[in-house]
Amino acid sequence: MKKEKKKRTGNALLRRQIPFHIMLLPGVIFTFIFSYIPMVGMKMAFEKFIPARGLFGDQEWIGLENFEYLFAMPGAMQALRNTVVIAFWKIVLGLVVPIVVAIMLNEVRSSKFRRTIQTVIYMPYFLSWIVFSGVLIDILSPSTGVVNQMLNAVGIKSIFFLGSNDYFQPTVIWTDVLKNFGFNSIVYLAAITGIDLSLYEAATMDGANRFQKIRYITLPGIRMIVILMTVLALGNVLNAGFDQIQNLMSPQVYETGDIVDTFIYRIGLIDAQYGPATAMGLLKSAVSFVFISTAYFIADKFFDYQIF
Length: 308
Fold this sequence. Notes:
The protein is mostly helical. It is built from 14 helices and 2 strands. The protein has helices at about 1-35, 65-70, 75-105, 110-120, 130-140, 145-155, 170-195, 195-205, 210-220, 225-235, 240-250, 255, 260-270, 275-305, and strands at about 45-50, 60. It has a two-stranded antiparallel sheet.
């Protein structure tokens, strides 16, 4: 009798879930077509690939020679280092700045002023990097850009932000933060609004000031969402932003601006070195997998947080 009841309950639950599985199906098909089927091409990393013979043609198997050639190429390791540095600072500032902004917005009492600020800081997120890069190139121009005009007005010489190896990396990092922090702050603002208001009332009764409430209530209250966003961000540690850097970079800043994705683009699509380009992409995916697995393990082990 118990087994029958359990079976009926399971069948009813399955019937209720069918519409959700149907809704999920297009995304699964899309992911399979564009993420899993292309993985067949990874075999090019171990072949002397000749396009005329086709992907499944009689290609010469050369083992790890593409990887050896890749590590000997000038600029490959520099691109890897640039990627790690740029991605690291993007992840750190991409977490810290939205959290600070969300807390500050939460402390604003005027809803009209808060909505105005939110609208202004969200706007850059909805611009593509092609459009936003054009705006940045104009704003940061050493001759006509408004930023350098302001610097000149206070006696500082013009800075070539996008053409100097000293300034390109910080410019890329901070412009990425500028574009995304407004939208990312929505997540933390939503987490803050989910905190029990009685905690703040009790803290007020105990004489806590605004900063003490933020430290002992707000920050612990959004701790789990911060961990989740960190784990997800670490999976992109080698994605330093191809669309941004490809639109802003020029040959004179390859030393500090060239990243793994732009390096793969150049040697693969421009120089037609498909084997080494695939090897670099495979290496990037392997390192990213290690990072996200480690981050997930730490979140589960030390913070008792599970994504799945």
